[in-house]
Amino acid sequence: MLMPSIFGENLFNDDWMNFGFPEVEKALYGKHASHEMKTDVRETDSGYEVDIDLPGFKKAKKQLCEISNLMEKKISIPQVKEKLSVIKEIQSDSFWQTGDLLLFEKVRKEMRDLMKFLAEGTSGRQEIFTRLEDPVIDRKEGTVLDPAYDFEDYRKKVNRYVEEHGNTLAIHKLTHNIPLSSGDYKELERILTSELGSKDEYEREFGSMPFGLLIRQIAKLDHEAAMEAFSKFINDASLNQRQISFVYKIINHIEQNGYMENISDLQKPPFDKPISFIKMFDAKTRNSLIETIKSITENATNVSA
Asked: What is the pLDDT of residues 83-124, one digit of tens each?
């Protein structure tokens, strides 16, 4: 570097640039701390690897998963159906594990034209404004809080697994009204409380619901299996057309829900009209129908020898 000089003498000595700056810690605190982007650069044999922790990533992930879940319910719209593969990809763990910014940008463009469909049909909603105030009972600074438990993530994992593994033995038995073996039950327990999450997560989300009933509730009951279970009533020549129609109502309910949660539901809509269950059948037929309904539930809860 050229240095200014007078009469051949340098105005700056060799140490003129070696003055020190005080060390300043540039950490962010308070409400802006979570907005700081963190990077980690590592040298490898083939070059360098860079890990980037983007601020707001977890929040954006949750929002995009919620949007894709809502969008999947609008599958009847041709434009949405065309992008179904993209919508399902967003809900997969592999999509978020890649950390591929170019892939995220591609998905953003794919979803951009579909957002208008989420707004349709919401104009009639009534807006409710609330003002909630919580008293401050304690203050503590400098303690890192654990991330809040997200019930939605575990429920989605379970739903996705059941939808994608309908041909596995245990799930096939449940959807076809076939009793479970002890091995089937242990496999369901392993999947729901080990592979997809923990026992605590299962209990937080589904309480004490038996594994078989949960799977049946998600996967439903096969139509042919339901018809087979009630075939003796459908083929009973002594029953009139109105009674047969009532039996079909029961079949439809169990198909859609996987089972009948409570026998008392037979006294409620849509079973209470035009004639109640008690008036529709004689005592023997009523008891036989109730036993059939219970057996379908028991095939999802009891374990055969």
From this structure: 888 888 887 877 877 767 777 788 888 888 888 777 655 544
β-strand partners of 50: 41
Angle at Cα 266 formed by Cα 263 and Cα 270, nearest 5°?
145
Both tokens of residue 23? 């060390």
Quick: pLDDT tens for 207-244: 999 999 999 999 999 999 999 999 999 999 999 999 99
Length, in residues, of the chain: 305
- Average pLDDT rounded to a whole number, residues 264-280: 91
Exposure letters 112-146 (e unless 16+ CB within 10 A, then b): eebeeeeeeeeeeeeeeeeeeeeeeeeeeeeeeee
Span 158-187, pLDDT tens digits: 999 999 999 999 999 999 999 999 999 999
CA 59 to each of CA 18, 35, 56, 65, 262: distance values in angstroms, whole numbers, following the listed order: 45, 12, 5, 10, 40
Q: Which is it for the CA torsion 94, 96, 101, 106, positive or negative?
A: positive
| Confidence grade of residue 295 (pLDDT, cut at 50, 70, 90) | very high
Phi, psi of 47 (to 5 degrees): 150, -135
Which residues, other chains included, contact 176 with Cβ-Cβ below 8 Å and sequence gap of 6+?
A: 222, 225
Residue 180 tokens read as 């479970």
Identify the pLDDT of residue 226: 96
Distance of CA 148 to the CA centre of its chain: 16
Residue found by looking up tokens 């809040």 in the block: 148
3-state SS, residue 303: strand
User: Residue 217: CB partners within 8 Å, gap ≥ 6?
Assistant: 257, 258, 259
Q: Is 175 left (phi over 0), alpha (psi -120 to 50) or beta?
A: alpha
CA 91 to chain centre: 8
Distance, in Å, from the CA atom of 123 to the CA atom of 119, rounded to the nearest integer, reads 8
Question: What is the 8-class DSSP label of residue 38?
Answer: E
pTM: 0.54
